[in-house]
Each structure stands twice: as structure tokens, then as C-alpha cells.
Amino acid sequence: MSLIICAPSEAEAPAVSTVHLRAMDENLLTHAQFPSPEGLQFFHSWLERNTLEHLRDGDKGVLVAKDGETGEVVSFVKWLVHRPGEGEQQHQVEEEWPDVARGEYLDPYAALTERVRNRAVGEEAAYYHPTYLCTDPRWAGRGAASLLLRKVQDLAAADGLPLVLEATMNAVTFYQKMGFEIKDELSMMLPPRGSSEPTEFYEEKCMVWVPPKGAVAAS
Q1: Residue 214 lies in a domain
Q2: Ranges for the N-acetyltransferase domain (predicted)?
Q3: Would you state the pLDDT for residue 65?
Q4: CA-to-CA distance for 43 and 25, rounded, in angstroms?
Q5: What is the largest CA-CA distance in the chain?
């Protein structure tokens, strides 16, 4: 069973969103931020727009893994390139969240992750920031995520830059196998699914990968 790694077409943006929501269906943060079917529908559309931005913006990127037989999108990775003097907020359009989304968990999470990355590598550091790496659960364990992340590592190595990301707890071991080290952590109190009371502890790890010394930039 072969996999094809490539940039998606704009027409495949909805498929990327579907993979994202399938992969994150058990994630506490996703349902704290988008607690209803209407909220998840909005998030699906938001993710479609986000994919298009990553296709069109030179300091962003997106790759997908497709089933070589059917062409189905089964996994994807998105990333930003953070450069000194260019806060990531400059890459993003400020957004007013609708009532179906919980801004009280969206905006603080974004601010928290930025602070943690700054602590891990420094505010003036340049780095690649993988924002999402998701695989359809039906394809879990078949190597799609490893292939995609290795492509981003190759790009970062060619630029001589590290990768910095936030890992959910169930993905920490995967990233360690890919050469990442834990540098910091972040946590929030969130409401469990179906509730509005923040009674559940949520944690992620900030992890860093540094290109091996002597890595040769791609020509």
C-alpha cells in the first residue's frame, strides 16, 4: 500500500479539514474550543480557509499524504516559518470568533503556546513551527505522519533552522522517535465534553528538533 506525499490542490482543502477533525475527535482542547456540532462545522470551514492560506503564503506550507491507489487524503502537516522580527500574529488575520466557538479557550491557548515557544528557543530565534500534523485514525500506524514530518525536517535542515512544536501527550513518544526533545510544557483547565465548567487538566509539551551538525542544505 503506497503513499504519495505532495502539496494538496485547493479543491482538497475540505478533505484536509475532515482528516483534522477525525484525528482530533478525542482531543479535549478541540471540544473545549468548539463545543457543539455547529462549532465543529465552523471549525471545519475555518480549517479549509487555513489550508488555502498555507498554500498561498510563502512563509507557510502544507503537505498531504494520499493513498496511492485511491488518491484519498489520509494525513497532512501544516507549518509556519517564524523569522526574527516577524511575530506569528503578523501572519494571521485577527478574527472575531462566533458564538459557536469559545474565544476564552482559543485566544489564551494561542498566547500560551507562543510564550512557551519563546522560552524554548528565544524570542528572536528563527524556526519552523509545525502547527498541525494529523492522520485519519483509519490510517494510523502506517507511516504517513513520519513521512510528512521528515519532509518538513528536510526543509528546516536546508535552512539551518530548528523545528518547534506543541505535542499532545499521546504524540510525545512519536516526536521523540523523530528526534525531538521536550523543552517546556503548557497546561490549561478545560471543560470536559458536554460541559461548560473547566474541571479537566489539559497538558501539552513544547518539543524542539535541531538539524544534525554537518547537515548539507538541499541544492
Answers
A1: no
A2: 63-208
A3: 98
A4: 12
A5: 53
